[in-house]
Amino acid sequence: MGPAEPDRADRLLAEAYAAGAVGSEEETDGSGTRWLLYVPAADARAVREALAAAGGADVTGAEEPVPEHDWVRAWREGLGPVVVSPRLVVRPSSVEHMAAPGQATVLIEPGQAFGTGEHESTRLALELLDAVLPGHGPGARVLDVGTGSGVLAIAALKLGAKTAVGFDLDPVAVAAAGENARANGVGPRLRLFTGGIEGLASGTFELVVANLLRRELEPVLAAIAARVSPGGGAVFAGLLAAERERVGERLASVGLTVASERTRVDASGESWLGLYARRR
Ligand code: SAH
User: What is the pLDDT at residue 11?
Assistant: First the structure.
């Protein structure tokens, strides 16, 4: 891009940030100025498309992955808030975001546990959770299977669920979820344990959320379905759109009927599926 086009550069950078870029570096030499954009992989495609639509014809095709530990730093330094809906935003505490009136904020620190809200499957689970939780009433009890950072359980509690139980096979995730719950002021309403669903005390839940890959979900699906209360529902994410038919059949076989669904496409073109199913 030539030095005589600063307005155009500002405009293109604004488009890139709006589409998900989290940082940029400017390099000027005799031949002109180059900008290096930092973009989460999940947003790379959206940023490319936004730049193309804005007339960024001389954007080069080169993309270089940045190692994950740099990403944690990049996140701390400036990853944007994940605005799930007018009722819900997820962000690290270091990222400023002025919540809209009535918008709940979930603070999640980037760490080793999965679940910052950036991944398409977490986002799908959050979107479905936000959409269906009010239908289960203000006293809803929520079960979060594979809680990771605790993001789904914490979001449910901030959106009005009464209590939640979360568990994960990974003790690092459970520790992170506990810290995140405290930071969000919902610690007393969230019970956490390390282990699988067999470690769960008896009882059922108005809403179960499970952001698990299909191969992780299938072995525990019957046990999950048994924990959905009559009239209750379950949100499943972590599935691929191509798995829709197979998963729909599995759900039917455990007494769950798909009531709504949505998909999101990630930067690599993969189409992720989120399902909300009701107990018959
Ligand atoms: N709920 C978070 C994390 C999802 S990643 C989010 O939506 O972003 C999936 C998590 O499930 C991982 O932390 C993994 O350790 C855990 N997990 C996978 N299979 C599990 C199982 N059978 N029981 C409990 N946890 C499981």
Answer: 81
